[in-house]
Amino acid sequence: MSLDWVGGAAGAWLIAALVLGIAEILIPGVFAIFLAIAAAITGIAVLALPDLTAPVQIASFAIWSTVTVLIGKRWYRDYPLETSDALLNNRSARLIGQIVTVETAIDHGEGRVRIGDGSWPAHGPDALVGESVRVTSVVDGVVVVDAVEDAPA
């Protein structure tokens, strides 16, 4: 298969880099940018050394992909993104302190509560259906609740 229509192998690698870069913009949070950099480096290498064989090009891409992903991983560890909401991606921590409604009576320490539009298993003191309880923690996907003294009506 001839790659002349895209400028040869170098053009194909540079187009791949562009496509991966666009994918990163459209689907943020994916590591496509690191693969785009690796493809660009490989494309530039093929421009400089046009006699590189396909296996060498693929090996170059694999090596540069590994290097850029490791650099990116280190960068994100050393310079974490700051946010105004520290619990943005920690749904369990966001639940602590919320007052929720008992959906299935909590009997002998086990029942279910309604949180938003979902139903969660719950552990805590006995409570009847419809009572309000406060979430005190979340352990392995189970909310731990406690009685609310001044529950809203």
Automatic annotation (TrEMBL):
Q: Does the keyword Oxidoreductase apply?
A: no
Any one GO CC term of this protein is: plasma membrane
UniProt-listed InterPro entries:
Membrane_assoc_protease, NA-bd_OB-fold, NfeD-like_C
Stated membrane topology is: Multi-pass membrane protein
Domain NfeD-like C-terminal stretches? 93-145
Indicate where this protein resides in the cell: Membrane
Q: Which Gene3D superfamilies match?
A: Nucleic acid-binding proteins
Q: What is this protein called?
A: NfeD family protein
Q: From what superkingdom does this record's organism come?
A: Bacteria
Whether Transmembrane counts among this entry's keywords is yes
Membrane-spanning regions, if any?
Answer: 6-23, 30-48, 54-72
